[in-house]
Every structure is written in structure tokens, then in C-alpha cells.
Amino acid sequence: MLINPPLWDFSAFDLWAKPLGLLYLAATLRANGYRVHWLDVLDPHFPQAGDLFPISPRKRYGIGQYFRQRLERPRALKEIPRYYYRFGVPPRLFRDALLEIPEPQAVLITSLMTYWYPGVQEAVSLVKEVFPRTPLVLGGLYAGLLPDHAKARNGVDYLITGEGEGAILKLLKGLNGLTPVKIPDPEDLDTYPFPAFDLYPRLPYVCLLTARGCPSNCPYCASRLLQPLFRERSPENIIEEIRHWHQGYGVKDFAFYDDALLIHFEQRIGPVLERIIREGWDLRFHAPNALQVREIDPPRARLLYRAGFKTLRLGVETTNWERQQTWGGKVDPGSLQRAVRALIESGFSGEQIGVYLLAGLPGQTLREIAGSIMEIKKMGLRPRLAEYSPIPGTPLWPEACAVSRFPLAEEPLYHNNSLFPCLNPFSWDQVQQLKDLARA
Ligand code: SF4
After folding, report:
1. Count of other CB atoms within 10 angstroms of residue 436
2. pLDDT tens, position by position, for the chain (440 residues)?
3. DSSP code for 52
4. Which of 220, 259, 296 has most ligand 1 atoms within 8 Å of CB, for mutation?
5. The sheet that has 205-208: what strands, in order across it?
6. 337: how many CB neighbours lie within 10 A of its CB?
7. Is 221's C-beta closer than 6 angstroms to any atom of ligand 1?
8. Atom of ligand 1 nearest to the CA of 328
9. Which of 217, 218, 225, 326 to mutate to test the pocket of ligand 1 (most atoms within 8 A of CB)?
10. Which of 141, 223, 229, 261 has most ligand 1 atoms within 8 Å of its beta carbon, as the pocket-test mutant?
């Protein structure tokens, strides 16, 4: 059984959010003869829900609010003057769904942000109550970034701290003695089965990953930590997956989860987009993860537009160019202007082009962030504040710990981006003004 647990936070929004890693594991297990049970507590179309609770209507392209219930803030967050919620189907439905499933050989729970561990704890304790003898495996980002905390605080039997496909097959072999027959080759991503999206009762969109990792190494980002090598799928394999979901399941919306979608454009995504245009498939693509500004030129922008991209996000982070240099210099004013001109001339509207701006990194001031917001607005684009969450093990982590007003190393709840944990000086009013400025 594979579980995507509820999440506990001040806010959350379903922006094409699916547990892609867990879906890859489900597919790998099925390819090896396992029968899998799928339980995504965050699924707005949770099968057992029926009309029992009000699912928020989906917005365009399948995105929308999660079902949520107010919670008491955990002790560490008692002083924070904001409401705290549990996102996901109510616990009673979660329990009912577990009770419908025959005792599994193993339960796999995934995890994402380090500060969402209370949702993992909730899932673990419920599973233990219903299946006290079943081995429990925890994987995902939190398990990989904070293995000691994850093991000590959740009482799981096994942890998977890196890529899961090979690890889960090995682990299950140790438990049941079954030799896997189809082990994906980590050096050839085309050997991986397509993620098991068909386990969802309704499929408004599918998430695609055309490569794993990122060739850059920005100091605030965990990409290199989690995927030390940049590996890519072949265009043929990606086209086959899009065909599979579109023709087999009628899916029209696809969200790319790539960290570096446009890198090696002519060898990977370029041929995919050309083929989609040739086939005449009527699809909509979304890039909720940032696109690399330097990789956008007029021919590429035209291809993105003609293939059906509807949502674009550019990874700019700051228009303070001195600061940009200290973070690796992935954008400069010239490349930003060239990319924006190419996108607009291709047909994209300024509304479609969201620009991520990091807010709250060590050393950043409110004035500096406001300056970046204004700069992006002047270009006719939509600034999107990406509130900084300090991530253990990243190059910026020691500095984050040194400047934060919270003991980050002691309590992952303080990594929460809503707290702006590394912004100094800090005030809730000023942070709100910043958000209003970005939205206005
Ligand atoms: S380019 Fe993006 S994904 Fe790659 S290291 Fe930088 S922030 Fe992370």
C-alpha cells in the first residue's frame, strides 16, 4: 500500500501537486508483479468521499484548493498569529479507506517538506493502529533530508533516503524473498515505467518528468543534494508517455516537474514539442517549476507557444544583480529582457508569464525584495513570491541557521516558508505589505 499523507501547514494550494515519486514506485512495483493499493489523502476526488465533504471546485486546468480543517497550532508555533490547518480528506475517511484494504505486505508513505512531518506522523500512527504487524517504509524529501529526525520521530521500520525504485524492490525482496524481474536502470531513465497515474479515479492532469536533477547548484536549492546526477529521458520515451495519457486516458493538461526543462533543448524537449505540433494533439502544458531564463530564445519561445504552453514560470529570484551573482548568476538583465521579448513576440501574454522572486533569504532586506517586485511589474509580468524555506544540507543552510530568529536545526517546523524564518528585521505587517505589493 502506498500513501500520500495529509499535510499540516498555514496554507497550501494544489498547483498540479501530485506525489510523482510515489507514483513511480507504484508503477515499478506493478511491473514486478505486485498488486498495489493507492491512497492519496490529498486527492480532491478521493474515492471514498462521495458527497460526504465539500471538495472545493477545481479552477482552470485542474488546479484548486485542498479540503482543509482548522487545527490547533503545534507548541513550537503557538506564538505565530496565523491559522493552521490540516489539508486532506478528514481523518475518518482516511481510516475508512485503510479498513477497506486487506492487510498489505508493506506500507510505503511518502513525505515532502521537512516542516510537514506532523502529517507523516498522523499517517504513521493511523496505519500502525489499523495494521500493527505490517512493515512501514518512509521515503520522500523529508526522509532524505532529515533521516535521523524521520526515523526517531515517526517510528517507521525502514527509511528510503534517495531514489526509491531500486531501493524498494531490494527492501521487499528482503522481506518476502521475491526476486524482482524488472529493475529500472538508474543510468537509463527510459527503462523506468510511466508513473501510475491511472490509480487515480479521475485524472484531470498528469505530471511529467523529462529529466532528473539539475546541472546548476544554486546555494538555496536541494536539487543537487537529492539528485546528484543530471539524467535525461529520450524524446521518444517522453512522447510515448504523453501519447499514453492523452490517447489512452483523454488527458489534455500536462505539468512539467523538471528542474531544468529547457537544458539541452535540441536533444530533449525541442523534438518532443515539434512532434506534438506535427501530430496536431490539442494539449495544454504548464511549467510550475521555474524555466531557465538564459535558455529562452525566439525559436524556442515560438515552439513553446505553438505546442500549447499555457502557464510559464521564470526562475529569476532577484533583480538585485549583485545578489544574483552571489547566488550563482543564473540570470542577468540582458538575458531576462531577451527571454521576455521572445516570449511576448511569440504570443504569450504578460499575465501568463509568472516570475519567481525569492523572498526572505539570509541578508535580503524587505526593500530589496520590494525593488525586485516593482522591476518585474515594470516589465508587464506577474511577480510570484517564493518565500524561502531553509533546507538542511544546502550550501546556504549554515548561514540560514546563523541569522534565523528560530532554532532551525532543532525543529523542522521552523523551516516553514510562511514564517519567513531568515528575514531580518521581520514584522508580519511588512511581510503582508510585500505580498500585497506582489498581488496588486
Ligand atoms: S536552477 Fe533551479 S533547480 Fe537548478 S539548482 Fe538552481 S534553483 Fe535548483
Report:
1. 9
2. 999 999 999 999 999 999 999 999 999 999 999 999 999 999 988 887 766 555 556 678 889 888 899 999 999 999 999 999 999 999 999 999 999 999 999 999 999 999 999 999 999 999 999 999 999 999 999 999 999 999 999 989 999 999 999 999 999 999 999 999 999 999 999 999 999 999 999 999 999 999 999 999 999 999 999 999 999 999 999 999 999 999 999 999 999 999 999 999 999 999 999 999 999 999 999 999 999 999 999 999 999 999 999 999 999 999 999 999 999 999 999 999 999 999 999 999 998 999 999 999 999 999 999 999 999 999 999 999 999 999 999 999 999 999 999 999 999 999 999 999 999 989 999 999 999 999 98
3. S
4. 259
5. 205-208, 253-256, 284-286, 309-317, 353-359, 382-387
6. 12
7. yes
8. 6
9. 218
10. 223
Whether ligand 1 lies within 6 angstroms of the CB of 223 is answered as yes
Rounded-to-integer distance, Cα 28 and Cα 310, Å: 31
How far away, in angstroms, is 217 Cα from ligand 1 center? Answer: 6
- Contact in structure between 138 and 150 (CB atoms under 8 Å): yes
Largest CA distance in the chain: 62
Is the whole-model pTM more than 0.85?
Answer: yes
Ligand 1: does its nearest atom lie under 6 Å from the Cβ of 214? yes
Q: Which atom of ligand 1 is nearest to the CA of 259?
A: 3
In the structure grid, which three cell numbers stand for residue 105, read together? 505486505
8 A C-beta contact, residue 293 and residue 326: no
DSSP label at residue 292? P
Q: What is the DSSP string of 143-199?
A: HHH-HHHHHHHH--SEE--S-HHHHHHHHHHHHH-PPPS----TT-GGGSPPP-GGG
Centre of ligand 1 from the C-alpha of residue 219, in Å:
9
**Per-residue buried b or exposed e for 11-29, using 16+ beta carbons within 10 Å of the residue's own CB:** ebebebbbbbbbbbbbbbb
Q: Is the CB of 239 under 6 A from ligand 1?
A: no
Q: Which atom of ligand 1 is nearest to the CA of 224?
A: 5
Pocket test for ligand 1, best of 209, 210, 221 (most atoms within 8 A of CB): 221
Q: CA dist 294 to 162, 219, 339, 340, Å?
A: 30, 18, 7, 11
Residue by residue, DSSP assigns 262-279 as TTTGGGTHHHHHHHHHHH
Q: In angstroms, what is the span from residue 220 Cα to ligand 1's centroid? A: 8
Q: Which of 259, 256, 253, 190 is nearest to 230 (CA)?
A: 259
Ligand 1 mean position, distance from CA 328 (Å): 10
